Amino acid sequence: MKYRVVQIEQSIMRKNDALAAALRARFEASGTLVVNLLSSPGSGKTTLLEKTLARLAPRLRVGALVGDQATDNDARRLARSGAPVRQITTAAECRLDCDMITKALESWEPGPLDVLFIENVGNLICPAEYDLGEDLRVVLFAVTEGEDKPLKYPLAFNTAHVALVTKIDIADAVGYDRAAANRSMQEVHPGIEVLEVSAKTGAGMERWIALIEARRANKEREPLVTL
Amino acid sequence: MHELSVALNLVEGVQETAAREGIERVIAVHVRVGALSGIARDALMFSWELATAGTLAAESALRIEDVPLVVFCERCETERSPRAATGLLCPECGTACPKIVRGRELQLVAMEVPQ
């Protein structure tokens, strides 16, 4: 069959990127710092968030959107902190996207927020592709996961602003090789800020909390110019 | 793992262009997929058939152009392709190269339509 070629040249992500820009403008206007948490399943996102919300709640208005393929267990766990929490169940989807965030915000009224945490679906591949309009992308990586994980999932670590090494309280017991892990992280993202934390014992949590507070204060002081 | 939604996005892009240009049938669709895009070729191929069913691109071929990972090495001052599973390391000098030049593409490139 005779055919002709029609050029298109458009990114498949353009719809998500446009929605991300709209979300960014909205969060800019409300002065909300948005933090996107990425990790494999089981790295401790929910526990970290639980403790983070509890520590920040007395000083800042905090809330969370939580993505999972099924169940609202995480949202119920996090709601114990008293902060507004909304579960997004993604069903077949392996990550959150801006369409899901936008829709969740339509029917959720947490009141004005200083910091909105978004707990992504546990997965280090797909979530790295999707801009959610966040200010801060944080990748979590437990000491049990293998020091070469950043090399296996370079995009997640390359696009993150901060890496949190979690479950640091059991580092010695599992033979965590700090130097090797740091080397892997620096190989995919030289200069990435790395914090070691244990949500369970509280080790390192103060630095993490201080980082969030500083970023939030910074956003309030120097709002970015939006279109 | 999100190949089906990527395939649906592609079909949407094809439909928009077709509507604009008065195209009624699509024979093949060309896409560019980067090595770091997180898309598995086979899964995308499989999803294509499902995503196009009942559309003007039904039974069309999906032609995937794989784009290898290319980074810019600051020390060598040139583009390099890291070896597999070495993250973003320059294969020549071993420097970490966080600047990704190619490999993140997920691009709807073109389509073939009857003349």
Structure, described:
The complex is a heterodimer of chains A (227) and B (115). Chain A has helices at residues 14-30, 45-56, 73-79, 98-106, 149-152, 154-159, 178-188, 205-221; strands at 3-11, 33-38, 62-68, 85-89, 115-119, 136-142, 162-166, 193-196. A seven-stranded parallel sheet of chain A has the order 4-3-5-2-6-7-8, sandwiched between helices. With 227 residues, chain A is of the alpha/beta class. The radius of gyration of chain A is 18 Å and the shape is globular. Chain B has two helices and six strands, in the order αβαβββββ. In chain B, β1 (28-34), α2 and β2 (61-67) form a beta-alpha-beta unit. The relative contact order of chain B is 0.25. At the A-B interface, β1, α5, α6 and α7 of A face α1 and β6 of B. β1 (3-11) of chain A pairs antiparallel with β6 of chain B, so a sheet runs across the interface.
Write the layout of secondary structure elements.
The complex is a heterodimer of chains A (227) and B (115).
Chain A: E1 3-11, H1 14-30, E2 33-38, H2 45-56, E3 62-68, H3 73-79, E4 85-89, H4 98-106, E5 115-119, E6 136-142, H5 149-152, H6 154-159, E7 162-166, H7 178-188, E8 193-196, H8 205-221
Parallel strand pairs in A: 2-5, 2-6, 3-4, 3-5, 6-7, 7-8
Chain B: H1 3-21, E1 28-34, H2 41-52, E2 61-67, E3 70-73, E4 78-80, E5 100-102, E6 106-114
Parallel strand pairs in B: 1-2
Antiparallel strand pairs in B: 1-6, 3-4, 3-5
Helix pairs in contact in B: 1-2
